[in-house]
Structure formats: structure tokens, C-alpha cells
């Protein structure tokens, strides 16, 4: 009887040891799979970074385009106020556009030009 109890105790201890090693092995394997970096996760991270970078570039460029459009609109309004093309002293010669004020012709300084003389409309 004592030998049966000893054998049962021995088998129970062996089963416990096997169960403990199996559980510890499973825990180690679970930890390894949780911490493992796979090619899928690297690819997903790369795609996310790619999309974020392009979104940031798009936002910066769209803001610059809006600012450039505002600047162009202001420049067009300013150019419409410049009276040089209707002045008698203005010519389309690229070397000397204005005989009186060549340094300020077609600039913002020309808006209030004191030498402005309107061209007379000729029929011929």
C-alpha cells in the first residue's frame, strides 16, 4: 500500500512538473509572439507614415497656394490703378517705357504720378 501511494505521489508530481513546464512554455511563447515585429506590421506602419507625410505636405502646399492667390489678387488690383498705359509719355519700348519718370513706370509709385498726362483719343 505504501508503494502504491508512493507511485501515485510520484506520478502526480511528474504530471504537475509537466503541466508547469507546459504553462511556462506557453507563457514564453505568448510573450514572444506579442513582442514580435512582423513584416505585416512594418508594412502597415510604413503605409500609415506615408499617408501622414503626404497629408502634411498637402496641407502646407494648400496654405501656400491660398496665400499666393491673395497676393496675386492684391497685385492685380494695384496694377489696375496704375495709369501709365493711358499716359501720353508712356511707350511700349522695352528700353524706355516712360520718358519723364523711367524709374517709377508701372510701379505703385506711378499711381500718384504728378507728370501724368492723359492720352487724347484719336479716331485715326
What does this structure look like?
The chain is built from 2 helices and no strands. The longest helix has 43 residues, at 39-81. With 124 residues, the chain is mostly helical. The protein is rod-shaped and about 135 Å long. The mean pLDDT is 76.
Task: List descriptors.
mainly alpha; 0% strand; rod-shaped
Query: In percent terms, what proportion of residues is strand?
Result: under 5%
Q: Give the CA-based shape.
A: rod-shaped
Helical content band: 55-70%
User: For the residues shown, what is the average pLDDT?
Assistant: 76
The main sheet comes to: none
Class inferred from helices and paired strands: mainly alpha
Low-pLDDT residue intervals, each spanning 5 or more residues: none
Count of distinct strands: 0
Oligomer: single chain
The arrangement of helices and strands along the chain is HH
The rounded Rg comes to 43 Å
Query: How many individual helices?
Result: 2
Distance between the first and last residues' Cα: 138 Å
